[in-house]
Write a structure and sequence with these properties.
249 residues; alpha/beta; TIM Barrel; 6 helices; 9 strands; Glyco_hydro_fam25_subgr
Length: 249
């Protein structure tokens, strides 16, 4: 009986520590990754309507906000309510911009592409269209590899005439392992934007990834509350060309 009580007390203590650690991380009190500007000179953020009003001039004054990738669309008809103003304000502030589309598994790729074409301007000096591919926040459908590749290819075929650049695929490690790993040739050529909030990805000279999302609880001047933080792989050459004009910031 005594051992059972001891085990219960230990279990409760472990649970309490785990809960406290999660809350501390969730409120931005703990961050696992702190890549320096020296090692990762081009850093940025990704935002959506969840960040509310953003002071883009304050953001532009910070060395760790060289780019901003903002949510534009989701599925076949949802448009982020703050995309248009964020897109224009970031341009005026001199921050390199990009737009991302949250890809749902429950709408055909071509329908989703039309939503992007109606929403995202085709402008020089911007990052390629990013496609957010993940399970969190998605519908209940779990596509096969063949189903997903067919819909992603249909999506990109539809937007290619207006947005011809090599796309960016945002993925979690779980999603990468399930769909992209070993199946890269089934997808169009793309830049990889990898979420890894617990450890630094192996660089492999950017053969595997181009953008690293290293935190989702970052703090920056100009945004109230947490924001996702990202870094460009130091040896990435394709996307880095967009930052030559602002290298002196």
């Amino acid at each position: 009986m005594k051992k059972a009580v001891q085990r219960a007390v230990i279990g409760a203590a472990i649970l309490a520590v785990a809960s406290a650690s999660y809350l501390a991380y969730d409120f931005g009190m703990i961050r696992f990754n702190h890549p320096s500007i020296k090692d990762y000179p081009i850093q940025g953020i990704d935002v959506s309507h969840h960040q509310g009003d953003i002071d883009w001039k304050k953001l532009a004054a910070q060395l760790n906000v060289r780019f901003a990738i903002m949510k534009a669309t989701e599925g076949g008809d949802h448009k982020d309510t703050r995309f248009a103003r964020n897109w224009q304000a970031a341009k005026e502030a001199g921050i390199v911009r990009g737009a991302y589309h949250f890809f749902t598994f429950c709408r055909p790729g071509r329908e989703q592409a039309q939503n992007v074409l109606e929403t995202v301007p085709n402008e020089q000096g911007t990052l390629p269209i990013a496609i957010d591919l993940e399970f969190v926040g998605n519908c209940d459908k779990i596509p096969t590899v063949e189903q997903l590749t067919a819909e992603v290819n249909a999506f990109l075929a539809e937007i290619r005439s207006t947005h011809p650049g090599k796309p960016i695929f945002y993925v979690t490690q779980e999603f990468f392992d399930l769909y992209l790993k070993g199946n890269e040739s089934s997808f169009p050529d793309h830049y990889l934007w990898l979420r890894s909030v617990f450890k630094e990805p192996e660089q492999e000279k950017c053969g595997r990834w181009s953008i690293w999302q290293f935190a989702d609880n970052g703090k920056v001047d100009g945004i109230e509350g947490p924001v996702d933080l990202n870094a460009l792989c130091p040896t990435e050459t394709g996307l880095a060309a967009l930052f030559t004009e602002t290298a002196g910031r």
